[in-house]
Design a protein that fits this description.
heterodimer, A: about 270 residues, 12 helices, about 75% helix, about 0% strand, B: alpha/beta, Rossmann fold, Coagulation Factor XIII, Chain A, domain 1, 2 domains, 17 strands, about 25% helix, globular
């Protein structure tokens, strides 16, 4: 039945189309890098350039306290997951509008288009992670069993990313204004997250508000297990987990609810 | 397979907003208005009713043709079945896998090769990789694209696009296959294969097929029911012959106006009293062979002193103007003082393929204005025991074939 579909039906339909998700992700990746000179090198170069730039500003010009960790590796630890988010959102939000000829002509679960963008960003993330490993060795930062936390952080972050990208992509179909809001929003989000500075820099009376940003808990947790050899702080991780889950489930639900209107509006 | 209908349309309306979708600002105004006590203020001038109260069912193993003028809502019906869009009111129920061929090359990526696109397209239709793999050779053979399968599809001709698209759509074992106008692109041999494949799907595999077409030959040959849409509403559903005939007679008046400019039936000045088609024996008939002679006998009355002439022509059931001839252009002038009588047009051979046609007769002014006084049409069909179909083109014109011996000293 086409009129009312349950969450289970949606997931089943998505599962049936898993090969399409795979094929479309492969296509996105090859198209993205085929036409650029440096190819997959950009996956490494982009976060690296940002980290170098921030290193210059925040360890040479303005001193940012990093609790004994060299600034380049301090910022790169957060820059990697941040780039995963930023790339997903920047490309993912326009994924529906960019494929309007498909959406108006043929049916398949529409979430595949934004999901494929996220999958592509994950490949970048993995490539850059190799460079990060080299960096850890270079700075003689020990890798502890605490890294076993990482799969959880990445999962939570992916849920957050998927939620945000689904909502953004559907909103762009309804309001073209969203295209202009995305770069602005991402810029604000970057400064509201502990990428270039530690979360401890935010005054105590604002911490409750600050921690509503799920990237705060996530980035701090990445740093805790990778750089400081500490377990993640639950008061930081829990809000991130809850908010990411809400965005993921709520975003997917709303996306599927709005989906029938896409072909009429695009 | 159960006898439950595979497709059900229950009181389906589809309304499109005309013009651009609302901007954020407009939407905010709407939202703020919605907070206030509810008023239904729909701007009907900006609404397009693509479908209005459409009801019909499709059973397994049925082939349904959808006909109607441009913008009658034919493609909207296909999009609703495919799940691309949803009805504004009412319910569309579809069970099973739907495979659609709504537009040429939809779901193809121009940069990818034919091979990659088969997998992409199959995946869009919900097939697993190994399922596509299993059908791959069949698809390629059907599309007749073995040599070009590793060429990016952006280099394909529109015929090749159509072939590949149909080949994939028809081989993914759909429960329902939707086919829009697209098949008209391929060559005759391919159309024949599509025809056979649709037949196979319906009669051997019990699938349902919904097709939209302007070429009624296709619909007549394959469909067991036809839905005639008129401005979004179902005008008639029934056997193909009856519905197509009703549709044609409604279209015909409008088409005449298109063919003859300044249509202005000045009634009272000329009246066509009778139009009779006579066969070789001189008997009145409405069925002829492909190359039989025909005489069109026109009886008329008119007021004296008007510069009257006649046009006679043949129109195919899909409104193709096959040929039209004007008496005055052929050097026959009616005397000005003649106010009643017959005029005849003799065709030595009709040269038409089997199908339904209209002989139309127009009385018009012989001067430069070419003002039309009145017209009249007579239906006839071409029948033959020969195998004549779209492979033979649009008209029947068989040459005389001879076998020539190699003359001594000629080319080997």
């Amino acid at each position: 039945m086409r009129s009312e579909q349950s969450m289970m039906d949606n997931l089943r339909s998505l599962w049936e189309h898993r090969d399409l998700l795979w094929l479309w992700s492969a296509r996105e990746t090859s198209v993205r890098y085929k036409q650029s000179l440096l190819g997959i090198g950009w996956a490494v170069l982009q976060p690296l350039a940002f980290s170098l730039m921030f290193t210059l500003v925040f360890s040479v010009v303005i001193k940012v306290p990093t609790a004994g960790i060299p600034y380049p590796v301090f910022s790169f630890t957060a820059m990697l997951p941040w780039t995963l988010l930023a790339t997903s959102v920047n490309f993912g939000v326009s994924s529906l509008v960019n494929n309007m000829n498909l959406i108006t002509k043929i049916y398949f679960p529409r979430e595949i288009l934004p999901l494929a963008v996220v999958a592509t960003a994950c490949i970048d993330f993995l490539v850059a992670a190799v460079l990060y490993l080299v960096m850890l060795v270079w700075y003689r930062i020990p890798i502890t069993p605490l890294v076993l936390w990482l799969p959880l952080f990445v999962t939570v972050q992916l849920a957050l990313i998927v939620g945000v990208v689904l909502i953004g992509a559907a909103l762009l179909v309804f309001f073209r204004d969203v295209r202009f809001l995305v770069p602005l929003g991402m810029q604000l989000w970057l400064y509201a997250s502990p990428v270039i500075y530690p979360a401890s820099l935010v005054p105590a009376q604002w911490q409750w508000l600050y921690r509503l940003n799920p990237m705060v808990g996530l980035l701090e947790s990445y740093r805790a297990v990778l750089l400081y050899g500490q377990s993640p702080s639950f008061s930081l991780l829990l809000p991130a987990l809850v908010i990411s889950a809400i965005l993921f489930f709520g975003g997917y639900r709303w996306f599927k609810h709005a989906e029938p209107a896409f072909a009429d509006l695009i | 397979m159960s006898d439950e209908p595979v497709i059900q349309f229950a009181q389906v309306d589809k309304v499109y907003r005309l013009g651009a979708s609302p901007s954020l600002r407009e939407r905010l105004v709407q939202w703020s208005a919605a907070v206030l006590p509810r008023r239904t203020q729909t701007d009907h001038s900006r609404m397009l009713w693509a479908l209005r109260d459409v009801n019909f069912n499709v059973n397994p193993g049925e082939t349904i043709g959808i006909i109607g003028h441009n913008g009658a809502g034919k493609t909207t019906i296909l999009k609703l079945i495919a799940g691309i869009t949803r009805p504004t009111h009412g319910r569309v129920t579809v069970s099973g896998r739907v495979s659609s061929l709504i537009e040429l090359g939809a779901g193809f990526h121009p940069e990818l090769t034919g091979r990659e696109n088969i997998f992409l397209n199959g995946a869009i239709l919900g097939l697993r990789r190994h399922e596509i793999q299993r059908r791959f050779d069949q698809i390629v053979a059907f599309a007749d694209l073995e040599q070009f399968i590793d060429t990016p599809v952006k280099r394909y001709s529109s015929g090749m696009y159509a072939r590949l698209g149909f080949a994939v759509a028809a081989h993914v074992s759909p429960d329902v296959l939707l086919v829009d106008e697209v098949l008209a692109v391929g060559d005759a041999a391919f159309q024949r294969r599509c025809h056979d494949r649709v037949w196979e799907l319906v009669h051997h595999e019990g699938r349902s097929v919904i097709m939209v077409s302007h070429g009624f030959g296709y619909i007549r040959a394959l469909c067991n029911r036809v839905v005639w849409l008129h401005h979004g509403a179902v005008r008639q559903i029934g056997a193909p012959d009856a519905v197509i005939r009703a549709y044609e007679s409604s279209v015909f008046g409008a088409t005449m106006q298109r063919l003859v400019p300044e249509f202005n039936p000045a009634e009272g000045q000329v009246q066509i009293v009778s139009v009779t088609l006579l066969n070789a024996q001189g008997d009145s008939a409405e069925s002829f062979g492909p190359c039989e002679p025909v005489t069109v006998r026109i009886g008329y009355v008119c007021t004296p002193g008007i510069d009257l002439t006649f046009a006679v022509g043949v129109m195919r059931d899909d409104t193709l103007n096959c040929y039209t001839s004007f008496a005055d252009e052929c050097g026959v002038a009616l005397p000005l003082e003649r106010t009643a009588g017959f005029i005849e047009a003799h065709y030595r051979e009709l040269r038409l393929l089997p199908g339904n046609y209209q002989m139309y007769v127009t009385a018009l002014n012989s001067s430069v204005s070419r003002m039309v006084y009145t017209y009249r049409t007579v239906a006839f069909h071409i029948e033959t025991s020969m195998v004549l179909d779209s492979r033979h083109g649009s008209f029947y014109n068989a040459p005389t074939w001879t076998i020539a011996d190699i003359s001594p000293g000629g080319e080997a």
